[in-house]
Amino acid sequence: MQSLEKRNTAGSKISNLTFVNLAMLCVLAVIFIIASLVVPRFFNINNISNLIAQQAEIIILSIGVTFLLISGYFDMSVGGIISMAAVLSAFFCQAQGAAASDLGSGLGLSYGMAIVLTLICCMVIGALNAFLVVKLKVNSVIATLGTMALARGIAMIVAKGAQRITGLPPEFKAIGQFTIIGTINLAVVIMLVLLVAALVIENMTVFGRRIYLIGANRVAAHLSGIKVGKQISLLYVVSAFLAGVAGIVMASRFNAGNCALGTGYEFDALVVTVLGGTSIFGGFGSVTCAVVGAFILGILSTSVNMLGFQPSMQMLVKGFVIITAILALRFALDKRNV
Amino acid sequence: MSDNVLEIKNLTKVFPGVRAIDDVSFDIRRNTVHCLVGENGAGKSTLIKILTGAYARTSGTILLNGEEYAAHNPKEAKNKGISTLFQELNVVDQLTVEENLTLGIEDTKFGFLQKSVKIKKMLEVLKSIEPSINPKQKVGRLSVAKKQIIEIAKAVASEADIIIMDEPTAAISEGEIRRLFKIIKNLREKNVTVIYISHRLDEIFELGDNVTVMRDGKHIETKPVAEVKDRSELIRMMIGKTVIESYIPKDTKSQEILFEVKGISNSKLHDISFDVKKGEIVGFYGLVGAGKTELARAVYGADKYDGEIIFKGSKLGDTPSKAIKAGIVLVPEERRTEGVFTILTIRENIPIMNMGKISKAGFLNNAKERKIAGEYIKKLNIVTSSMEKETAKLSGGNQQKVVFSKCLFADADLLILDEPTRGIDVGAKGEIYSIIRQLSNEGKSIMMFSSELPEIINNCDRIFLLYDGRVKAEIENGTDINGEMIIHIVTGGE
């Protein structure tokens, strides 16, 4: 009993957020060590660089999702925005009327122009989210599930339910396939840049502080003069922009504008964010939580895959570990805050 | 059976630092309307909460029909025969009248609902009380008064001995009040005793058989209403002797008008006008439902209003952020849900209303933030082990000092204080009063909304009395201030 009290007082010198970050980092380390020992060929430079590259898109995505979640809002539209961005980025730069089929010909713009236009379209979806949630006061889960379907619908129409793959300019695959070391590609670099920017915003700016204030107490934030609606609107547009970036990167990696890309990513983004310790009740969390969460999920997926589990079993194991991790976190926090 | 349906003996309830109910004893006679009156904080609500099972008593006995009574929750209280008509009505808008009546006591057979004798009985009771309500109607379409009648019918049909009514007329129209009174008077024929709580004293004389007056947690008097001479006798019992303990009139009064409200109205406020001078402490006093919080929120821009507000010579914007920019801050009524950010630290709470002062080009200056947090903790004497403590872990008084720190850091010229000392201990109250006075001496203007008369009389230079969303009177504070007259006005007298 006494030793527990001692630990509590010693622990209270660091904030709850640091505590959670450290705790989940330990979980990540333990899972990494176990995977290295148990899974054959896991601890190998190729595999690990693969692992990092695979997390790039989900981490880019989860920056916006995390910010909104800390403010107490959900963004479920990101999965749909990914597929829309993937298909549109292909459609805009496919050669004009080059192929016989409709799917082979696009607008024939430069790839750079295509990226800009795609991101603008994504931000329009973000603005629509903001309008529904902030102005019309629709519950954020429902509103963004609606816009997710909308964005995916656009992707399916433009890709005719399939993918746009012919007539793409050679630059199209550059982001996803240009490698630095092993499989560390340009996507990883983009992820790192965005991550650093997100951490700076989160910890060092007034904008970042407001994200926490709104999540901690929206009513008090409003009465303290914070323009809650404006801030949330901006976050939705940023989140849609980041989802667009993720979609463009993904399309580049597959060298195709496939409308099936990004399916289920809205849930993955939410899972890695919450898995890392961000609270779904708002006011608490960090982008670092999402990074740690993404790697925990990544190692787990890779391991069960490499151990030769059936896909159905993989799903089961994933579900089990996620629930365990979240419960353990809750338990640790409760113990600490007695 | 004894004549008394309820006997309360030596009932005491102690909260940390307060005796909310102090050795209270009185009886309630069967099949009467028994009124309970007293100022805010007299102990009425605590007493009701003990009867309905929301609070546990510290000591004392309650006998219901001569038997020891205790309840742990409202449902248990109901089963034992005490039903309550809360201000927040307990009906489901989406269901029909009939479904509401049987909610929670439905008869089922293999999981299917059954039409039963219970429903028939319920409907008969409802019909005998108010024939105009159609049982198939959705409750959401009914007025507040009719919803109350449904709850009364439910209580009567479930053979309640006592129905407690807490300010039932606060939200209903004059015509509906008449109808409700008729129903209440008829309830004694149905073998029901009513405990009636209201701030509107005229209602007591119209409705009550007996009245119990409470003050500062103590029982003052229980007697038949017929033996109470008039309103002023009741008021005298309610407030006792109001003494002006510490109001000191200012020697020099500024005549410069800082803030001027010209005829603002909304759904809760009716054509309110007043002004606040530089360095002045203006009090707004009224009872529950008089519109205090509504007025505080409206002038701050937190609620919509029609009309015009002039601050420092120009028209004031209609959002809190515009008010803060202009130099007005609000200490809100609900400290925990509207004032502090409980899951954040003291350091993070203090600069919120004026982030520009601790940042440059949008980037936070952490060293400055810590320095300022330290200064305010010292200046307002916030008791804490560290500025990194979550505000949730502070006492009510210290949380309120954090809210004051927030407001002071915003460098405002006008502070709107809504119930600034509610729920905090005596020591912290005193500290808050001295902060308020110091601010006034520094030339800041204060608008203080309170439901505690001594607080208003001891601190304010000028007092506005509110009743039913209107300003009923304006009083210059001084030694000749008359507490009885004030209570007379805020309880609806002319």
Overview of the molecule:
Chain A has 338 residues and is an all-alpha fold. Chain A has a single domain (53-307), classed as ABC transporter involved in vitamin B12 uptake, BtuC (Orthogonal Bundle). Chain A has 14 helices and 4 strands. A two-stranded antiparallel ribbon of chain A has the order 1-4. A two-stranded antiparallel sheet of chain A has the order 2-3. Chain A is globular and about 65 Å long. Chain A starts with a helix and ends with a helix. The relative contact order of chain A is 0.20. By secondary structure, chain B is an alpha/beta fold. Chain B folds into 2 domains: 4-239, P-loop containing nucleotide triphosphate hydrolases (Rossmann fold); 257-490, P-loop containing nucleotide triphosphate hydrolases (Rossmann fold). Chain B is built from 17 helices and 24 strands. Chain B has a 6-stranded mixed sheet, with helices on both faces. In chain B, strands 18-21-22-15-23-24 form a 6-stranded mixed sheet, sandwiched between helices. Chain B has a 4-stranded antiparallel sheet with strand order 2-1-4-5, with no helix packed on it. In chain B, a hairpin with a 2-residue loop joins strand 23 and strand 24. In chain B, helix 4 crosses helix 5 and helix 8 crosses helix 17. The longest helix of chain B has 16 residues, at 426-441. The model of chain B has no long low-confidence stretch (mean pLDDT 88). Chain A binds chain B through residues 15, 204-207, 209-210, 212-213, 216-217, 219-227, 283-284, and chain B through 300, 302, 319-321, 323-325, 330, 332, 337-345, 348, 352-353, 355, 359, 362-364, 388, 406, 410.
